[in-house]
Amino acid sequence: MSALPPAIAPAFQYASDCYITQSIQMGMEGLHGIGMTWPTAFISAAILLRIGTAPLHIYAEKLFAQRLHAQNFLTQGILKKVSERYRVQLGPSADGSKLEVKSSDPKIAKATEDALHEVPSMLSEHGLQAARIQNLKMSTVPIWIFSSFALRNVINSDFHPSVAGALWIPDMLAPDPYFVLPVAVGVFGFLNLYSQRKIYPGVVKMTWKQKSYDAVLAFFTMFAVSIMSQLPACIPMYWLIVSMSGMAQAQLLRHPKIKSIFGIKKLPTDSRTPIRDLFKMRTV
């Protein structure tokens, strides 16, 4: 901690010593204590944490599907009432992506817009706010941060555990000599982002804010890759398992059979071949 800037040293100290970090560290040491090698213990800890945090993501996906169904239902009902009141035709937009009132009258357009502005408040009344759904997914982020500090505590402990490597990495306490693991972490980070933007083209609207968010995320992903290339190889290995398991979880929750098990409503973006869809996109 002495090498850290004074402004952030207390935060790092807290993250290293808090109960969550200590609990995860004890779990990693316990896995090693039952006979697992340290790399296997780290990998197992990442998978167990992914399973443990899965209910939050499943619940978020359930609310997300409910929100889309409710939003479509309310929007269709409002547009139908506007159409009947002003006696104008209701039909699909030019690109066929949504319903719209077929009128160029500014008065009707204003009435339609005002009516549709009530949809978010209606969704909020039923606990389907977009912010709530996003916060449910983001609530697991601290767990992963604390788990990284738990891993750091293990490899920096007084007894200096021997972490034998394999293949091109002879020692997991030394940086990856060929940068394979750090680069793989970055690739899966971009792949996760790519899947969210491409598999759900009709759901995620690419506003300037979203593009700015993607740019910032890309920058921090590249920054993280450069940092991980200088850290012990077991750290990027751990984050690679975290990224891979997160990717697998997201794709599994798009499969109709998996969704039916957890009672998640169907969406047009569901797929029986979610992995293939990463490389062969279909139009939604």
TrEMBL record:
Query: What main location does UniProt list?
Result: membrane
Which InterPro entries does UniProt cross-reference here? YidC/ALB3/OXA1/COX18
Coiled-coil portions: none
Compartment annotation = Membrane
Record keywords: Membrane, Transmembrane, Transmembrane helix
Q: Does the keyword Thylakoid apply?
A: no
The protein's topology relative to the membrane is: Multi-pass membrane protein
For molecular function, the Gene Ontology terms on record are: membrane insertase activity
One GO CC annotation, please?
A: mitochondrial inner membrane
Question: What transmembrane ranges does the database entry give?
Answer: 175-194, 215-241
Q: What is one GO biological process annotated to this record?
A: mitochondrial respiratory chain complex IV assembly
This one is known as Uncharacterized protein
